[in-house]
Inverse folding.
């Protein structure tokens, strides 16, 4: 079942944060506040262990979906899938190691609620379009989470702050590419603002 409402909520939160709007921060708990769909609540302040515990299954969902692109007929999609699997698999290994070393009382989020549909039964254009449509929102959520971790001062280790910054830069570039493909190949506008100004992290 596709849950579009959380994606819309995530987009609105991301647009607000990037445009300089004030988003009220929630309490900095380990797993953080949740909306009615089980996804992170808008504007929550992320602690480092909570961010790691949530980002690991979030990345793993993206890796599973990207693996399905090996069946795509478009070389661009196969390349994107391979890039996501390579980058995010390495990031998951780092995050899992950090969580085990620094935050022994924090476990990975076993109650993670999927944001993407099952792509295993799709082929051709249906596969490509479903992946792009879902992954834009999925990436927006990761960018929002990572920006909130940094802006809220939740990262207590330089390595985690640097990874959050990398996720923002990598995934925002992929969002631009995926939105362009959705428009060029399917005449579709993806979630988000086409002229969005991305905040520069230093």
């Amino acid at each position: 079942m596709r849950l579009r409402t959380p994606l819309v909520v995530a987009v609105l939160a991301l647009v607000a944060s990037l445009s300089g709007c004030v988003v009220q921060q929630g309490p900095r708990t380990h797993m953080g506040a949740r909306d009615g769909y089980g996804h992170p609540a808008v504007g929550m302040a992320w602690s480092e262990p909570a961010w790691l515990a949530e980002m690991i299954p979030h990345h793993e969902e993206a890796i599973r979906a990207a693996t399905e692109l090996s069946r795509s007929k478009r070389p661009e999609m196969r390349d994107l899938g391979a890039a996501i699997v390579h980058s995010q698999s390495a990031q998951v290994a780092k995050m899992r190691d950090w969580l085990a070393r620094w935050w022994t009382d924090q476990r990975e989020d076993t109650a993670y609620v999927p944001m993407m549909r099952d792509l295993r039964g799709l082929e051709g254009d249906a596969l490509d379009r479903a992946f792009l449509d879902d992954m834009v929102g999925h990436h927006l959520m990761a960018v929002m989470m990572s920006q909130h971790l940094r802006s809220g001062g939740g990262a207590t280790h330089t390595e985690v702050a640097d990874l959050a910054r990398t996720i923002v830069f990598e995934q925002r570039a992929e969002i631009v590419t995926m939105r362009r493909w959705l428009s060029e190949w399917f005449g579709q506008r993806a979630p988000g603002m086409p002229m969005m100004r991305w905040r520069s992290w230093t």
